[in-house]
Amino acid sequence: MAVNEDVRAELDFLVALRRDLHAHPELGFEEERTSQIVAEHLTETGMKVHRGLGGTGVVGTLTVGNGPRTIGLRADMDALAMPETADRPYKSTVPGKMHACGHDGHTTLLLGAARELARTRNFSGTVHFIFQPAEEGRGGAKRMVEDGLFELFPCDAVYGLHNMPGLDTDEMAVVAGPQLASSDSWQVRFRGVGTHGAKPHLGKDPVTAGGHFLASLQTIVGRVVDPLQPAVVSACSVQAGDPKALNVIPDFIDIAGTARAYTLRVRDQLEEEIGRLANGVAAMFGIEAEYRFIRRIPPVVNDADATARALAAAQAVCGDKVRTDFPPSTAGDDFAFFSQDVPGAYVWLGNGPAVDGALHHNTAYDFNDGAIGTGVKFWTTLVEQELAA
Ligand SMILES: [Zn+2]
Ligand SMILES: [Zn+2]
To answer: Where's the Peptidase M20 dimerisation domain (predicted)?
Structure first.
């Protein structure tokens, strides 16, 4: 009975911790309170704790026995700049910020696993518990890598986990290959010569060039990229002229958007083809094109060996409720900066039914505390199997 009481007490502790984090969301690189809590709990277990990588990043290191293998487990800590609309006892206390992606849950799961593994010590090797800042588009993983994450904490494999609405809380999805798309931005400025709207022949109209560019943009995905390779190119911003000056042809038009791919080759192709199209259209109209492609996040592509190890752990925890045919997401995750340097696997943990706003980045989203038990068990099992004594 004592064992069951311990398990229940630990679960209560983790639920309270998760709700406290939920009530105090912090944006990327501002996770002062969260990283302080993480560091305190890690220190309490007796493990070595390193702070400051990527600003607010925290790494806890637990070595047991003399096993030579070392693995990294990653949780993200940041919230989003958006209001929380749902009423709940632990609703965000910070206006305009909320944990709408469940990173409060990810932080809790990894802390729970760190506490458990530091107690049970049923493995031989080294685990780095990596708590990263700023996953939501602010570049936290990249900063940690640039700050020397893998020089200070070399890893033979690295693992990431994200909650997923639509899967049960005792269900996981573990799939080899592409999991999340690359997420890059691009900008085109067509620079013409502004003139009177009634005298277009005296200038060079960039707006018409912009129209041709937009009309041709989808031929990149439709006609150039291999039809069996997923890719997305979207123009998301168009700015030119002034609606209060309808007799003025402006000097330039700015068009910008996003590009997504699941392989490095298609990513390169999108970068090249958008630029080619921009320059070709500019040449056609005798104007200039300025083109920038901003590489933000590479695709997350699961390594076969790391995926097999993660799958074995997930099956040990969830039995036959592990999906191996789950579709990839067109979202991105900067876990890619970890898994492009070290063999990695990124897995999905169920968050319950995807109903009534229960979708990532919705103002009513909430991590499901019912998944804490499954998530912690997955991490601890992965370590015990990966670093078997
Ligand atoms: Zn998110
Ligand atoms: Zn997320």
So the answer is: 184-278
